[in-house]
Amino acid sequence: MDYTPHLKKILSLAVEEQASDLLISAGSKPMVRITGTLAPLATEKKLNTEETKGLAFALMNDAKREKFLKDQEIDFSYDFEGKARFRVNAFFQRQSISIALRLIPSEIRNIEALKLPSVLHEFTKRASGLVLITGPSGHGKSTTMAALIDEINHTKEAHIITIEDPIEYIFTNDRSLIEQREILSDTANFSIALRASFRQNPDVIMVGEMRDLETIATALTAAETGHLVFATLHTSSAAQSVHRIIDVFPAEQQNQIRFQLAGSLVGVVSKRLVPRVAGGFAPACEIMINTTAVANLIRENKTHEIGTIIESSAQEGMISLNRSLADLVARNEISLKDALDHSPNPLELKNFV
Questions:
Q1: Residue 21 neighbours by CB distance under 10 Å
Q2: Domains in the chain, ordered, with CATH?
Q3: Is the pTM of this model over 0.85?
């Protein structure tokens, strides 16, 4: 049976409803997430195991089906008739197939449209170094990184190589030449693609995720050798990001890595999306800039003191997450309860609001 018409119907409904996510699972109606709230598609019926399998396979070509059946899960992107793009994760649960689809907006919004701190513009002006975009899954790391890459695209003559799993936003060349490589489709993995990029003459490299020691080591080398590198980490703060990078290396290498990172790091953006009072989400950001004081802390293995430097360096463009949350509460954009729920230090936040 051809499940393509049914798939198109469900995807069309998700796009029409302006859903951020679509979830397909046996025993349930297809579910959409709209401004954070999960609800079933009212016009759809509950799906059985055969139907979820058919819908999943309708999203995949032969190579993806083969990999999925071998690994029992897969990530990929899906272009829906030029109307929308989805980031897809298919997986098995209780011997049936489920699918999680994230709708990727067709428009790449800029820093102002995303309501991100204006200091982020400075990161795009650097000639070399490492910029980290961090935060939990689903809190806009890819969207933020796309905004930074597209700003370079519109303001500099640069050769930009992206390494993604999967490709999410599609860039249109303006002043820059952008080449997008997808894991498995265009290259075997992040570390191989990153090593190969040294021979591809890039000015800017975007790494979708730094997952392992080899990728992190190569990204640091790229940042040290004249490339501007943007990368994401699943960490909750600037201090944790620095610690994660250093800690992935063997103990005997860590001192050398501290010096490398202190010299090459440009800054860290740690982002949360917090529900707005009026609906939708507001970004709360911790911004760390690698000043002399921060670099000294990294070299001296005093990353636990980075938060204090951030709190006292507002004049240099740094922002603590609690200050960002407090500002959103003061502007009545988010509730105090939601701010406290997303705060790394709720007691401190109460003193700010």
A1: 18
A2: 4-104 (3.30.450.90), 120-352 (3.40.50.300)
A3: yes
